[in-house]
Specification:
Helices cover 8% and strands 47% of the residues. The chain has one helix and nine strands, in the order αβββββββββ. The chain is mainly beta and 156 residues long. A six-stranded antiparallel beta sheet has the order 1-2-9-8-5-6, with no helix packed on it.
Length: 156
Amino acid sequence: MALSFLPLAMFLLRTVAEGVQWPEHVVCTLPHVRLSYVSCDPLQDIGFTLDHCPDLFRQKVHSKVSFLLRHSIEEVYLSVDLFVGNAEPVHYDETLCLPTIQRFTFCGQKRGELLNQDWPLDVKLAPPKGHFIAQIRLINQDADQIACANVTLIFD
């Protein structure tokens, strides 16, 4: 019986070892704006949507992120690295969940549960022209990666 699972196990190990490349998800495309992302987690893709593509990010939109939790999240930390051209990356960290401070409904969710979080975005900015890349990671209390995405935002 154990030998019958050997080919499947070898295929999965080889696929992970070779590095899975998830597809690029285009969230928003307008004549002067393009927002897309690729999951950088080798084991799972994530879902992210906007209810509509905002015109130059000067109006309210609702966003939603969804993915299956592979690890429980009593504590969650956000880590963002923003890359603009050849400049040094800008790094940002924020605590999203602690056992005593649960800012979001997903705080405290357990392994195997589906994380669905939606929230309104009211971004009022006049973005400079350019090509922006951000790596966004969520890490739990055990330093396990909960989610990872490479986001590309292009303003022409």
